Structure formats: C-alpha cells, structure tokens
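Here we describe the complex-level prediction in full. Unlike the single-chain runs in Section 2.1, the two entities below were treated as one system.
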Amino acid sequence: MAKKTAPENRPKTIYGILILISLFLISSCTASILSISNTFSPEIIEGNVVQIPITGVITGTKAGSMFQNEGAYSTEIIEKLEKAKNSKKVKGVILEINSPGGSPVASDEISQAVKELGKPSVAWIREVGASGAYWIATSSDHIIANRMSITGSIGVYGSYLEFPDLLNRYNISYKRLVSGKYKDAGVPFRELEDEEEEIIQGKLDTLHDFFIEEVALNRELEEETVRDAATGMFYLGSEAIEMGLIDELGGKKEAIRYLEQQIGTNVTIYVYEREPSFIDFLAELVNEHAYNMGRGMSSYIREANTFRVIT
Amino acid sequence: MKKKEPWELELPGNKVKTKEASLTKRVIAALFDVIVLAFVILNPFSGVLGAYFSGSFNDAVSLAESSLPNQIGFIMFIIMILFFVYFTLFQYYYKQTIGMMIMRIQVHGDITFGKCMIRSLIGIPTFPFYILWFIEPLLIALNRKALLEQLTNTTTIERRQ
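The structure predicted for the assembly as a whole is:
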C-alpha cells in the first residue's frame, strides 16, 4: 500500500486558521465541561458521627508554601463543621488531629466553630496535636491522645531569618523608604532594632496570653497552672494527661466509645467525600491505564533480569 | 512560490539556497509555537486550573485533595493530545508550524503523516517527551541532526535567496 505523503501543493492559509480555531474550540469545550462537572460540595452520605481531619499546618486559605503538601484550611474545616452542625443526622463529631499548629487566627476560627457545634465532640490527637492544633482540641468536649503523641507546645513564635550581613558582604544595600517608623519592622534585610524587638515581643506575649486564657477556659484549669505549662515545650500524651491537658489515653476506639456514651447509641462514622463526577471517572480510567502500563513494563523488566536456576 | 515557466532561465540570482536550519532559529521557532499554543490551547484551561490553584507556582505543587492529581493528569492528557495534533497537522500540510513560518524554516524530506507524528513527539509537554527538549538541541549542536529527524529521515532547512 502506498504511503500517504504530504500534499504537493501548499494548502490555503484558511485551513491553517481553521485548524487553530478547531484546537481552540476543543480546548474551550473541554475546559467548560470540566468546570461544570467540577464543583465541590461536601455531602454526608449516611451515618451519625462525622470524622473531620485536621492535618498539616493550619492556615486560613489554600495559599500554601512550596514545602506544604497538605494543609488544614480553616475555611474548609469550618464549612464541614457547619454542615455537621446543621445536619439532623449528625449526632457527634470526631476531630482527627495530626497537626503541628499554624496560624493563630485560623486556629481560633476553627476553635470557635467547634464550640458553636452544639453537639458532642471529641478531639483524637494522633502523631502531633501541638500549638494551634492543641488550641482547637481544647474546644472539644474530650481530648484523647496516644501516650506517645506530641501535644502542648502552648506558645507563640515569630522567629525569622535576617540577612543584612549577607547583603553587606555582596555590596547590596537596603534602601529604607517608609512612612511610619515601624512600617518595615521585621523586614529581613536589616537588623531589628531593640525598640522594635520589644514591641514585637510584646505582641507575641499578648498572643501567648490569649492562648493561655483559652486553654484555661476550655480545660477548666487555673490560669496559673496553664501558664506554668505554657513554656512552649511539647509534652507526650503520657505527660499531658497528668498535667490535665488531655482527658484520656487511647485512639479511635476510645473516641468512638466516648461518643457512644454521649449520644446513647452506636456510632457510624463517615468521612466527608466529594461526589465523583464524570470527569473523575475518565481521569481515573486514564491514570489506571497508565499505571498498569508502567507496572506491566516494570514487571517485564524485572523478570528479564531475575536470576533463575533451571533444573 | 511563483511557478517557473519553461522558458525562464535558472539564473544564479534566482537560485534558492537551502541549508540545515540553525539551532537558534529552531529554538526561536519553538518559542513562537509555545506562544501560539498558550493562546489557543492553554488559555481556555486557565480558568479550570485557576480554580485548583491561586495561580502561583507554589500552589501548583501543593495539592490539598487526593482527587486533584487525577483531574490535573486528565487535563494534561488533553493538552498533550492537542499539542501533538497541532504539530502533526501543520508539519504535514504546511511542512511548517507557525513558529517555523515566522523563522522561515521548514521540514524537508519524504514527509508522511506517520513521520510527522514522530517528529511531533517533541511538542508534547509531558513526561517522557520533554526529555527530548534537552536531547534534541544537544544533538543538533553537535552534529546538526536531531534524533527524531534521524528516525524519520527528514530534516529542517532554511531557505535563502
């Protein structure tokens, strides 16, 4: 059969334009279909207790850092808490906490939402539930942690790196142009002056006081007791229970048992899921196909290189 | 190009000289193609991808939901196909992409649709094809013949009068 070769005569320019228009239309239609089918609407499918994960650094929005692969975003968590609050089916909430803390504002926002839940809640601390994450945990009715969980770390830090000497070494100077003498306090390109350091330290101390007050209020402890523990040090679960910072040592089983006692019935847990769309189905198909292709190729290569004894 | 009448003499001044296209011209042509493809193919997806990320590179590597990698993979697959179609069709019908037209270089040789498809593999912006973006310029810089051109027995030339 003769090979199909390129046409001798150059096609008219209009055909090239039509190709570009067709590609644009295909892209636009595909993007439109994706946009329509891709709406996130957390729906509780069934069950009476919702498990809400609080995993990663706590921030307000999704604008994370390059090193942050997964974060606890207060807007999303509060949305889930409000859904749980408004749902007649949901009788209780488990906060599955695995977070080193994060933004004080975001932590306080989530903490307030937990307090306003109006239903029994239990904070289940897994590997880490420290700083802002511990703040959130104290808002729940009951805190459970493993004996080796890291919790506490009741403190605030605003440390940062300064580079003035590095800049000076390379003859780079920082030109200070500000209106308001403290406007550039904390800028890493110059040294922090003593007066500025004192002011910023004062603000950190204020945040620290807010943190201590919240923990004392939520845990029904004396403020002085909490202040003694609020050195910023983290505590293992086994230490925290002796200090009154948590209620029980255990895991998910204990969290479920607590809620069963509170709601008076068996617990069926559901995690929030996004309803998969048609595009999710297609995407899964493509990825599965690609995965199996790779797996097939690698197993072929592995078998070809395997030492075998043939008898 | 104007059709030469039988009585027209092939005078030296009328001769069209051809030579292998330089690496610089090929790279610039590729950049022009990227600009065209950004408008035609990538721009419609900017809204969808913007819904996932706030637009920064940092967000592009920070995926908060497990279903997102699947969806983005699917979008990249579509983009890959469309890029491939662009390069294949233009090289087959016009022997040039738009970038090549601007830089006045073109494909030369026994051009078939299959060969154009092979040549177009370099235009696919996903793994493993983007490895060619490093291999091809290196080969061209060393011996003037790209890998895909060797496979398809075609070349890229520039025409000068």
